[in-house]
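dumping this here before i forget
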Amino acid sequence: MNRIEALKAEKDGLDVLDDLVRFAREGWKTIADDDKERLKWAGVFHRRPTPGHFMMRVRMPNGIVTAAQVRLLGEITKESGRNVADVTTRQQVQLRWLGIEGVPEVIARLEAAGLTTLQTGMDNIRGIIGCPATGLTPKELSTRRRSRASSSGSSSGTRRSPTCRASST
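structure:
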């Protein structure tokens, strides 16, 4: 059994959501290496080249995002102090330079806007990509609904921890 399979056998990857507020309170140095791996199931990635900072990957099925969601992503990016985000080839956005102390609040804000970071890493279904303009012409097959259903179905069996919605302060 490889290391990741052993981690999954020991504790479900999404169970780390229960620990996020504690991690935020106690600081990134207290997070065990195994839990840093598990955080990837929640879409939170510790970056060795940037000690103390995390990257969060935000799922956007078919590359479709509302103006309000883009504004929120911009606000979160500005608040990180670096004004840098990445748009990936899988039509997701990566928020960088986040401190663990702010991650629970960022997750709550994203969820309130209809966005999620859940299962954007590790061995999960990755973002379903397509054309955001799909279905604009009457005879075109729209992939919008199917993409959204497939994407939400990949995390539909997961639970959301109420502690993730709580403020980290």
